């Protein structure tokens, strides 16, 4: 397993070790002690999967009172996955990172609490699976608009975007109520 810091040092890109043989391949998608030792501190309470078609963009989402760190991966298709540091007081406030996750590169992204998260689907279909460090609370869902001009995420182009009405009506980071943004807590 290889773990690398992204340009946002708390967001980690993880490449599992793949054991290939004549039958196919094997890899560990999560190993508590190995991941913890290598800087993925979260204990996970919920596993999710979403299925999406080409051009779907989900995000940018975060949770506040019940913050979720997420360990995300793609088991079918290709997505461009994005994390944004939206912690008030962070030296990287408003900065983003993006990684292509696919069924063939097996990469994972670790997104800590306090970051907004989203992805766009670049293949015909995509299955997106992720572990979360807290349970889903429907009244604790927040978000930032995907095309916030200040954050300026360089999303790969698709022919036709497919975004939920809920996600289309999210505020920009500047419009968001600062009381409803996570706070930076240096270690
Ligand atoms: C996230 C979630 C949704 N749901 C329900 C609520 C709703 O009826 C339906 C679809 O929810 P959403 O539209 O919010 O699904 P989606 O847009 O896929 O939401 C996800 O987006 C990515 C980018 C994230 O980072 C996740 O944390 C999560 O916010 O599923 C759950 O029951 N449990 C959950 O944990």
Descriptive account of the structure:
The protein has 187 residues and is mainly beta. The protein has a single domain, classed as Jelly Rolls. Helices cover 5% and strands 39% of the residues. It has two helices and 13 strands. The strands form three sheets. It has a six-stranded antiparallel beta sheet with strand order 1-2-10-7-12-5, with no helix packed on it. Strands 9-8-11-6-13 form a five-stranded antiparallel beta sheet, with no helix packed on it. A hairpin with a 6-residue loop joins strand 1 and strand 2. The structure holds dtdp-4-keto-L-rhamnose (TDO). Residues 48, 50, 58-59, 61, 117-118, 136, 164 line the site of dtdp-4-keto-L-rhamnose.
Ligands bound here? dtdp-4-keto-L-rhamnose
Average pLDDT? 97
User: Which architecture does the CATH hierarchy give at level 2?
Assistant: Sandwich
Distance between the terminal alpha carbons, to the nearest Å? 26 Å
Proportion of β residues? 35-45%
User: Are there runs of 5+ residues with pLDDT below 50, and where?
Assistant: none
Q: The CATH topology is what?
A: Jelly Rolls
The secondary-structure class comes to: mainly beta
Helix content: under 10%
* Rounded radius of gyration (Å): 16 Å
The number of distinct helices, counting runs of at least 4 residues, comes to 2
Shape verdict = globular
The biggest sheet amounts to: 6 strands, antiparallel
Q: What is the strand tally?
A: 13
Annotated CATH homologous superfamily: Jelly Rolls
Pfam families: dTDP_sugar_isom
Pathway: Carbohydrate biosynthesis; dTDP-L-rhamnose biosynthesis
EC number: 5.1.3.13
Organism: Spartinivicinus marinus
